[in-house]
Design goal:
663 residues; alpha+beta; Rossmann fold; 18 strands; nuclease; hydrolase; exonuclease activity; Rad50/SbcC_AAA; ATP hydrolysis activity
Amino acid sequence: MKTSTLLLSRLILVGHRKNYIVPFQPGLNIIYGDSATGKSSILECINYLLGASKFVFDTEIETSVSYAALELELGGKPYLIKRDIFQPTRHVEVYSAWFDDHASVFPKRYVPSYGQPVSGDGYFMDFLLASLGLPIVKIRTAPTREDSTVARLSFRDLFKFSYLRQDDVGSKNLLNVGLPVLHTKTKQTFRYIFNLLDENIALLEEHLSELKAKHRRLTTKYEDVSEFLRQSDFKAAVSLEDELDELESQIKILENQLSEVNLRVVADSHAARYLRELLAEQKDCLALLQSDRLNSERQIDRFVRLRNDYAEDIDRISAVVKAKSLLGQASPADGVCPVCDSPLRLDQWRESFQINSEDKLAQEASTLERRTKELGHLLTEERSRYQELSVRIGSVNDEYERTSRLLDEEVSTTVSPYLAERDGISSEIATLKERRSQVEHSAKVRRLQKSISDEIDQLLRTIDQTNGKLEKMRDAAPSLHEVLSLLGDELNDYLRVVNIKDRRGVAVSESSLLPVLREREYRDVTSGGLRTILSIGYYLSVLKAAVLDKANLPAFIMIDTVGKYLGKTNASVDETDPVADLTEGVTDPMKYQHMYDYMVSLSSFAEEKQSDAQIIVVDNDIPSTIRDKFAGFVVAQFSSTGEGGLPVGLIDDARAASLPQEL
């Protein structure tokens, strides 16, 4: 199994009311449903958790979610990536555990972007590359110039070949081909992926040296930590876990005994009555605060929706003003009154009533912008109020629990036959819980020690793999022609399965590094539907190269809207020729089905090669024949109307939360 594996397990949006979870599986994963149900948001959230600079979320997510988390395997090791969706410059937290167990380990905190000063445990991009066993290198920004500057190659550069966004599916500017400066960086990234950089061997040798140095540092660190733990008489990890299980069992037994004693206690006193009344007041206060917090949450939701409405109105006004400025204004001529045949002077009436549509529009836009700004302040204040209420709820809850304990103690003191027994059990429980806390901390330290050991083992595997790559490159470094031939052959095989018309002249261009069909460059293909088929096929060809271990890239891909330009969506026709689409027959449902057939077969091929490949596709509602055939690959399905009991969207309780509570 190759080291550079990336395999998603679960996307978790941690919310105020509940958690919103999307599961994933190895191989093909299909997410489909009605428009505007949050399908694309799933991929964008994954993209953000893998280092994108921002996450453009909708109103439902903004008002329902606290933060996002992603369970995944990198290089065969489980991780949880946790990130604040509202403050993208904050540190990304990474835990070497799944979500349910992440509180039991210490997290590492990474800076999300190379543009920020390094702090914490370093850059998140470097962590991703290192976990995938990929060299951390710098590449020349202008490779044909001797004085070219160099730029750090980021995981984000590589991920452009793993995420085909909705705007890029079938786009003429796929991989920035129409933007020379950006496309040069993309071509350099392509050369890195396929070991085509002139300095690839030198870079790999340098990377290998860095890996060995890191291995020495970690080994020294592990030995120092181990020696300290030995001198401190720390128990072994297995012994600590066994002790934790035993302590949990003892605490549970004693708590059951304590409950039985409390059931036999029948007592009342003046102090107990006072504490009960106080307890009732605190309970009412807690209920009131929770109601206020719920109202605050709804107020935040209303402010966000109103702000978005204002923004749409401003956009519409701007469009009207722009249209007027482009089209000009008609100059109405003077006319005759239809009643009395008297001449009408429009200029006189306009001056009398001061009619000026441009001023009105500008004034309305200004008013809306001022209201939007005011709403921003109100939103900030309401969020602060929400946080304050949460703090007060926590404080009152603590008082409630303290009063409950006092009441328990008061009741117990009035029942002398049970006093000694109860105190003895309570004391023993407290002692055991204190011991459990100590053992849990010790177990955390042992888990940290094990994580260092695991990292050393992973480094050794990466070093072995890098040595193997280096030997292969020294013996027979691939040429650009060989790589393009490989991708062209895979693309041709894909187009054969899809069964496009006139399949000839299939290749990958040496100049653009994009598909060629019938001796025509991808960008010159006029049919948007055919470009959709080609762009998806190109990305799947790169994925297959990764499965074959011929690319410095994980065998992972996300595709947003397979049916774009294929008659399955309301895609804009700006970049397609409807006549060409008709000629190519791209709306043929069998072509659409064959694209899915190929993805299934590619998943099976990866499984045969023992490669952890994953394909995640988002699409709109698909035909029932395809839906039935590929039902086993569906991991999420949404219906805007909730038809058949399906969730209405990713945030499936947003509508219920916005409704007023019944009295």
